[in-house]
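Lab meeting, item 3. Inverse folding demo.
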């Protein structure tokens, strides 16, 4: 993941490295309250400073977020689904393709 500034705005660009998707998934998981309030606070402040078109989330990261929320955090599937759909609507989504793997 590359963080850069364009016209004063922080931008997130994704590389095709699968490992980097975990950073995005973790930021979203923290924003959902996983791993405590201090991390949630930081994640929400970070995301609040970015516009929708400045955040590109791979579809794979959303799938992994659902898994983390239901398995690690033991949240109900319906709650995790609502969270994932919320992020899907709030961010630009990058397709996952076999070319990446």
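The presenter then showed the designed sequence:
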């Amino acid at each position: 993941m590359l963080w850069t500034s364009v016209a004063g705005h922080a931008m997130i660009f994704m590389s095709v490295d699968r490992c980097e998707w975990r950073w995005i998934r973790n930021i979203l998981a923290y924003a959902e309250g996983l791993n405590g309030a201090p991390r949630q606070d930081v994640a929400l402040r970070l995301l609040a400073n970015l516009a929708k078109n400045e955040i590109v989330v791979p579809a794979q990261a959303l799938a992994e977020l659902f898994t983390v929320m239901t398995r690690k955090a033991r949240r109900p599937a319906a709650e995790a689904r609502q969270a994932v759909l919320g992020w899907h609507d709030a961010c630009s989504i990058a397709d996952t393709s076999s070319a990446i793997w």
